[in-house]
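User: Sequence recovery, please. Input:
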């Protein structure tokens, strides 16, 4: 077993971090346990009761003011006053009534001044009824979605694969729930909620006799919203009750509210201590980028739990993104191995795949047959274009990175004209008026989710897209076999040391063309896999930046501009897509309405490429 060399500074840092973790963990565990203890339950109930008293008190003040205004209006009219005099008398009466209500303390009732035992019992009954209703609503909606998943429409305005900057849109589909109707069980539970609210109103009127049934009915939405809500957590209940009650819960309340945060922070500190302790071996094994991004991914998972985001859903999305982007990232590997470096001209292959998908829709094909047809057509087209692309790169050795970038941008711009003049007739693809193809084309009638839904299942709430991951694994296995074939070994040798390879009789130019062709062919398959997973294809400027995203992922996985392995593809894609998947909702939860998630995406993707290029020193293989 290899000995780990740890400096004195590392040991001191580890000890301090672990001490902080123990303290936070102990406080967090105690706080979580206290939530269900009598003291925690009483604190939450007291805040809810005070919130009810505050809301009902404001209603009592309004009732008192309304009575005074009505009396002033009547007196002004009996005195023969006109509309102007009546309005003046009413305004004055309202001002005086509110001042008097404040002086008399109407509506300002403190918990310690009244007996709230009966009101507390009624409150608990209403909260239980509300929680039962929301649980049934969630179950009924999940059942509706499952039964109607094939008929549910998706809002196309959010379904872009990428925008002009190359960023992926949110993967979550917007589900149309307009056809959902409350079930009999939901209606029965809602009737129970109404019944318990009326019972609670009777106890409120004991404290505020001036309140009428009409006023209490108008206060129902405000009062019930404080008690319970859909997808409730202790933190959300606490925040609503504390804001409505105005009670300062002190240190005890703060510990209760932040208990999960303390406990999860303790877990994060323990992981940080391990990273500090094993920093040397981790950097040697993983490299700085993977260590940083891997730690950041773990941090995002902890933040998602702290912010009460659905971590299982986000991890499921990460697995989907791994499969749907994996083949595109895999297409970088043959280009790196054959000596053309990062194939930023992969839009050449993507265009071939898009044409294959368009032909599938035009011919009315669908399902797995349509998917395979699109792949075959895309591979055939990209094999031809990849051959000529490889010949071009052979004439411009030493400047491949610049050339591939310019070629990729140029083919995308050229196809912006091509999409307008291609003779496709399907109404699914054409604009309703004029010529040309739509920017976004749905794959519902073709091969949408044929891989995602194949043998998919859930584990602890995480959806496993079995078919998608199996297809990605198959592509990785086939590339792995090819790289160990005689041609694959010769291609790698030509990329690693062209002069030595040429001296041993290997045709370097031919190997470079083979690698370039394989890269573009994989890109064609990759965009078809991407499209079936997302449910849409996007034309025009969408493919422009996809090469940079794929390059970022494979470099993050540990590849360089001259060497790459299958493991680099898998690890890099998972980390890159995991950070993007979790980073967006976490950033939006931390800073609502900001664009920080997009800023992070740009920093991560471009920063990784810059790091890899500096590590390679910009050296040419020539």
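Assistant: Recovered sequence (622 residues):
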């Amino acid at each position: 077993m290899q000995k780990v060399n740890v400096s004195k500074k590392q040991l001191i840092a580890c000890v301090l971090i672990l001490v902080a973790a123990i303290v936070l963990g102990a406080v967090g565990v105690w706080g979580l346990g206290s939530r269900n203890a009598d003291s925690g339950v009483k604190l939450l109930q007291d805040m809810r009761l005070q919130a009810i008293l505050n809301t009902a008190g404001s209603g009592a003040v309004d009732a008192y003011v309304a009575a005074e205004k009505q009396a002033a209006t009547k007196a002004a009219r009996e005195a023969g006053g006109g509309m102007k005099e009546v309005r003046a008398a009413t305004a004055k009466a309202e001002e005086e009534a509110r001042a008097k209500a404040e002086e008399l303390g109407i509506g300002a009732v403190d918990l310690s001044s009244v007996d709230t035992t009966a009101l507390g019992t009624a409150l608990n009954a209403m909260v239980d009824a509300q929680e039962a209703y929301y649980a049934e609503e969630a179950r009924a909606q999940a059942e509706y979605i499952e039964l109607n998943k094939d008929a549910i429409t998706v809002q196309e305005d959010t379904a872009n694969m990428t925008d002009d900057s190359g960023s992926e849109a949110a993967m979550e589909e917007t589900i149309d729930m307009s056809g959902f109707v409350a079930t009999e069980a939901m209606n029965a539970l809602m009737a129970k909620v109404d019944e318990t609210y009326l019972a609670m109103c009777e106890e409120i009127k004991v404290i505020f006799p001036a309140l009428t049934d009409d006023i209490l009915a108008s206060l129902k939405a405000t009062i019930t919203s404080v008690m319970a809500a859909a997808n409730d957590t202790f933190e959300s209940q606490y925040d609503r009750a504390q804001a409505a009650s105005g009670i300062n819960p002190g240190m005890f309340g703060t510990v209760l509210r932040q208990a999960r945060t303390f406990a999860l922070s303790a877990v994060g500190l323990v992981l940080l201590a391990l990273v500090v302790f094993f920093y040397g071996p981790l950097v040697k094994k993983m490299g700085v980028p993977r260590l940083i991004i891997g730690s950041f991914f773990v941090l995002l998972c902890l933040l998602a739990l702290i912010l009460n985001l659905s971590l299982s859903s986000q991890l499921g999305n990460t697995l989907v993104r791994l499969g749907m982007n994996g083949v595109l990232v895999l297409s970088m590997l043959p280009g790196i191995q054959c000596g053309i470096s990062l194939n930023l001209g992969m839009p050449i292959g993507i265009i071939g795949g898009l044409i294959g998908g368009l032909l599938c829709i035009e011919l009315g094909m669908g399902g797995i047959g349509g998917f395979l047809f699109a792949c075959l057509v895309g591979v055939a087209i990209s094999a031809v274009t990849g051959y000529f692309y490889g010949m071009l790169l052979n004439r411009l050795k030493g400047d491949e990175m610049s050339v591939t970038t310019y070629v990729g941008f140029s083919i995308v711009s050229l196809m912006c004209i091509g999409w307008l003049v291609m003779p496709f007739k399907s109404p699914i693809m054409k604009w309703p008026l004029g010529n040309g193809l739509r920017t976004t084309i749905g794959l519902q009638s073709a091969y949408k989710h044929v891989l995602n839904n194949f043998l998919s299942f859930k584990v602890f709430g995480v959806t496993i897209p079995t078919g998608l991951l199996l297809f990605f694994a198959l592509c990785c296995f086939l590339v792995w076999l090819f790289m160990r074939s005689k041609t694959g070994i010769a291609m790698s040798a030509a990329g690693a040391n062209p002069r030595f390879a040429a001296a041993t009789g290997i045709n370097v130019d031919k190997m470079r063309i083979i690698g370039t062709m394989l890269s573009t062919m994989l890109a064609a398959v990759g965009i078809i896999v991407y499209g079936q997973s997302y449910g849409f294809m996007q034309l025009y400027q969408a493919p422009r930046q996809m090469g940079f995203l794929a390059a970022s992922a494979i470099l993050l996985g540990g590849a360089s501009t001259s060497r790459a392995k299958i493991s680099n593809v898998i690890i890099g894609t998972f980390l890159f897509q995991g950070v993007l998947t979790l980073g967006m909702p976490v950033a939006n939860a931390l800073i609502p309405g900001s664009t920080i998630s997009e800023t992070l995406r740009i920093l991560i993707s471009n920063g990784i490429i810059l790091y890899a290029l500096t590590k390679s020193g910009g050296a040419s293989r020539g």
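Strands lie at 440-442, 457-459, 462-464, 536-538.
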